[in-house]
Amino acid sequence: MHVAQISPLRVLIADERQDRLKVLADLVARLGHEVIASEIEIRKAGAATARERPDVALVALGTSSEHALELIGEIVHEAACPVIALLSEKDPAYVREAAKRGVFAYIVDTDSEELQSAIEITLQRFSEFDNLQGAFGRRAVIEQAKGILMASHMIDQEKAFEMLRSHSQHNGRKLIDVAEAVVESHLLLLPQASPTAVGEVDTA
């Protein structure tokens, strides 16, 4: 069964073996994703993500070992994106330790066909997770903006949302951009209002 089509991702790959690096790059590209950078020095993978800004990093770590776990910790700490670890063997205990260090997922490096399928499924899972996180984030900002408008204009949430929507349409801006502007301007005003509010509470 073929997995559903997903939006192309910008992927950084890292593998100390030059031949495997090319195999991984070809597999990722064949799946419709863009390999924006490759790194042959695994230890530099985290820093490379900060420089290249990929959506996700696919890092080959080889066999399970304490050294590899240390590398995972360093990479995840520096990484500016989720990290998917590529292992040469299935080791449940090792995977648990890798998860504790922040690895998003792991893939066992087998033959090319199985590896391609595993990468495809894992990247799809990441894409779905990323979209969901984005949706939750946008919803939270819009709800926060509605709350600010409700309090400042003494209106209900339906009218607050209508204000956001009307401003969005009138100015040709995305609803989320309008909501973010409301939240940001409210935060800028908070320091000026805070001392008075605190003083009133203290004297009560």
Keywords:
single chain, alpha/beta, disordered C terminus, five-stranded parallel beta sheet, Arc Repressor Mutant, subunit A, 63% helix, 2 domains, Rossmann fold, 5 strands, 204 residues
Q: Could you please describe the fold and organization of this structure?
A:
The chain is an alpha/beta fold. The protein folds into 2 domains: 10-109, Rossmann fold (3-Layer(aba) Sandwich); 136-203, Arc Repressor Mutant, subunit A (Orthogonal Bundle), CATH 1.10.10.10. The chain has helices at residues 18-30, 45-52, 66-78, 92-100, 112-153, 157-171, 175-203; strands at residues 10-14, 34-39, 56-62, 83-87, 105-108. It has a 5-stranded parallel beta sheet, with helices on both faces. Helix 4 (92-100) links the parallel strand 4 and strand 5 (105-108). Helix 2 runs parallel beside helix 3 (66-78) and helix 5 crosses helix 6. The longest helix has 42 residues, at 112-153. The chain is elongated. The chain starts with 9 loop residues before the first strand and ends with a helix.
